[in-house]
Automatic annotation (TrEMBL):
Residues 1-136 form the HTH marR-type domain. Coiled coil: none annotated. Belongs to the SarZ family. SMART domains: HTH_MARR. PROSITE patterns: HTH_MARR_2. It holds the Pfam family Staph_reg_Sar_Rot. SUPFAM superfamilies: Winged helix' DNA-binding domain (SSF46785). The keyword Lipid metabolism does not apply. It is found in: Cytoplasm. Gene3D superfamilies: Winged helix-like DNA-binding domain superfamily/Winged helix DNA-binding domain (1.10.10.10). The keyword Nucleus does not apply. It comes from Aquiflexum balticum DSM 16537. GO terms for molecular function: DNA binding; DNA-binding transcription factor activity. This is HTH-type transcriptional regulator SarZ.
Length: 143
């Protein structure tokens, strides 16, 4: 029988909670939840993406993503535009307030990076590579 410290999921659970807490306050100032913030990051990188593209990038299914998009639309940060060619396809575009929010969100990255200020670039890159491997290894087993 394993104990708490030997359980591999426990360390990820604690780390996830700590990182979520770090994001909570700055995101509340913007009126966003973390999942909504991730959608906005995807759209700030490239505006006018299909719902399926956003879902793929965030690894979210449409049942999870659609309520996020509806909420962002209800606060006028994005708008949904149906394809005239294929009504099943919906493109998500930033509104002017959604575009303007990007400059207000810059401090979030700086604040979160501050939590990693004792890490050198190599350690940070190793963490990212490890997390990417973990996600890629787990994902096929969870379908």
């Amino acid at each position: 029988m394993t104990n708490l410290k030997e359980d591999p999921g426990f360390q990820f659970y604690v780390a996830s909670r700590l990182i979520s807490q770090a994001y909570r306050e700055p995101l509340e100032e913007l009126g966003l939840t973390y999942p909504q913030y991730l959608v906005m990051l995807v759209l700030w990188e490239k505006d006018g993406q299909m719902v399926s593209q956003i879902g793929e990038k965030l690894q979210l299914d449409s049942g999870t993503l659609t309520p996020l998009l509806k909420r962002l639309e209800s606060v006028n940060l994005v708008k949904r535009v149906r394809s005239e060619v294929d009504e099943r396809k919906v493109e998500i575009e930033l509104t002017y307030p959604g575009k303007s929010l990007q400059s207000k969100a810059q401090h979030i990255t700086e604040k979160i990076n501050g939590f990693f200020n004792t890490w050198d670039e190599k350690q940070f890159n190793q963490l990212n590579l490890f997390m990417e491997k973990l996600i890629n290894d787990f994902k096929p087993n969870l379908k």
